[in-house]
Design brief:
By secondary structure, this protein is an alpha+beta fold. Helices cover 47% and strands 15% of the residues. The protein is built from twelve helices and 14 strands. Strand 11 and strand 12 form a beta hairpin.
């Protein structure tokens, strides 16, 4: 029976798995076995690549592609500088990235800052088409200071990615940010601390600390909350890097936070917040009564936990945490306002739809009232029109009769009339003539005075002439007033008719 070797199969998005296969087995058979184990369909089985490391029989690891393992063999590079020899073909980039990820995860190769930049560029080139498949989490191998200084490592990664492909550096930078922004440690601001101690919020004296830790400790502020970090052990390949040893405290678990000058930053937990992850990071003080009540004996109601960090920049840490809290609060308020607006719009639409479908008594009453007003206006306009016609006929009759009488009188005045009394000559004596004793029959007629140049006085008028003139003036004045009132009445009647017709038109349009 042929002896089987242990083959390690590494996927881009599933880390690596171990299978026992024969050394001469082709990679197609190995792919089918992996697909059956992962419960994939036949079509899906052909969509992923298999990277195999033969751990027995051949010195050193070997990497296989879709063809048979003995035919296509790519030896793994023991240094990252050798990865630059496989930049051309895409499947070679995938193989190189898989080998590098396996070497780093297994601890065979240590990853420094320069090597981490190359590995990040290789990861982005291999996984750019599927950003949801993060593959190797660089936060486990990249130094924490490199994550803090984004202005240093982002251009370096973009420059390395440009060497692997002809695309622009901005395109690869955006693609890589789509991957790393999903990591919890992305954007964490670290503040190294000389000491971290836990107290009870009700006690002001720092001598009664529950737990404390000195040196190699840091507090991290991110959009997720506050995290406490400790240095890794010296036996690991990344001894100078910080590792997340305590769970991150979410912003909802913090009751308050602040700083005392620039040398201390503190956070206070809510009563429901978990305390054990924070206390596991610190060295518990066995002589503290509070720790005994917390970890043993009868449970009693204790005050909230307060964690104080002695750091150089406590004010900046408190301000950064406040900015993250305000940003989360604004985002939550925007979501609530958007949801409330949507609910109000739905309710208003439902009410409007109900009003349109159901018959309304108010609408029926309004329609009846509008029709009644239109009928009443039409009847009133008809009565006013008949009255105006009658008044105009009477006025025209009066004017015609007056005109006829005036014409008749003028004709009678201008026509000549025969005199009933004949003319006789007579001598009229003047009042200022001197009286004589002689009888008038014998007296000689006085001489005629010279003609006077003054205007003769007007002839005397009779009373009936004065009365006739006054009557004529009054008649003309009354006629003027009647004509003026008639014109005003006609204007008002026309305006009333126009308004009535317009209201009737509106009523008919609404009906």
């Amino acid at each position: 029976m042929q002896q089987k070797s242990v083959v390690v199969v590494c996927f881009v998005d599933k880390r690596y798995m171990t299978f026992g296969v024969s050394p001469g087995e082709v990679v197609g058979t190995l792919r089918d076995r992996v697909a059956r184990r992962l419960r994939l369909k036949r079509r899906q089985a052909a969509c992923f690549e298999v990277f195999a490391w033969v751990c027995g029989g051949v010195p050193g690891p070997e990497v296989g592609h879709e063809s048979a393992i003995p035919e296509r063999v790519v030896y793994a590079a023991r240094r990252f500088d050798a990865l630059f020899g496989v930049r051309r073909r895409r499947h070679c980039l995938r193989l190189a990235y898989a080998q590098a990820a396996f070497s780093v995860n297994s601890g065979r190769v240590s990853c420094g800052p320069a090597d981490a930049v190359v590995l990040a560029a290789l990861q982005c080139c291999a996984l750019g088409a599927a950003p949801e498949s993060v593959g190797l989490r660089l936060e486990e191998v990249v130094p924490r200071p490199l994550f803090d200084s984004r202005s240093d490592w982002e251009p370096a990664i973009a420059a390395e990615m440009k060497l692997f492909s002809r695309r622009s550096s901005d395109d690869f930078r955006r693609r890589y940010l789509d991957i790393v922004e999903k990591w919890p440690s992305y954007g964490v601001s670290l503040f190294p601390c000389a000491e971290i101690a836990a107290y009870r919020a009700s006690r002001s004296a720092y001598a009664h600390a529950i737990a404390r830790r000195r040196g190699d400790v840091a507090v991290g502020i991110s959009r997720f909350g506050v995290g406490f970090y400790a240095s890794r052990s010296a036996s690991r390949f990344a001894a100078r890097f910080f590792e997340d040893r305590a769970a991150t405290l979410d912003l909802k678990d913090l009751a308050r936070w602040g700083h005392r000058g620039d040398v201390e930053f503190y956070v206070e937990l809510t009563p429901d917040a978990p305390e054990l992850p924070v206390l596991d990071l610190l060295d518990r003080s066995s002589s503290s009564d509070s720790s005994k009540r917390l970890f043993g004996g009868k449970k009693k109601k204790v005050s909230p936990l307060r964690v104080a960090c002695v750091t150089r920049d406590g004010a900046r840490a408190a301000g950064l945490l406040r900015d993250y809290a305000l940003a989360r609060l604004d985002a939550r308020l925007e979501l609530d306002d958007y949801a409330t607006t949507d609910d109000d719009d739905d309710e208003n639409e439902e009410e409007n739809r109900r009003d349109e479908n159901e018959p309304s008594e108010v609408a029926a009453a309004t329609r009846i009232a509008s029709r009644w007003r239109g009928t009443r206006l039409r009847l009133r306009s008809l009565e006013r029109e008949e009255s105006s016609i009658l008044l105009q006929a009477l006025a025209r009759g009066v004017l015609a009769r007056r005109r006829f009488v005036r014409r008749r009188r003028r004709a009678a005045r201008d026509s000549p009339k025969p005199r009933d009394v004949p003319l006789r000559s007579a001598v009229i004596r003047r009042r200022d003539a001197p009286s004589r004793a002689t009888p008038p029959s014998r007296a000689t007629p006085p001489p005629k005075p010279p003609p006077s140049r003054a205007t003769p006085p007007p002839p005397p008028q009779r009373k009936h002439q004065v009365a006739r003139a006054a009557t004529r003036v009054q008649r003309v004045w009354r006629g003027y007033h009647v004509r003026r009132d008639l014109s005003r009445l006609e204007t008002e009647l026309a305006a009333v008719h126009i308004q009535a017709f317009f209201r009737g038109h509106l009523v008919r349009m609404e009906a």
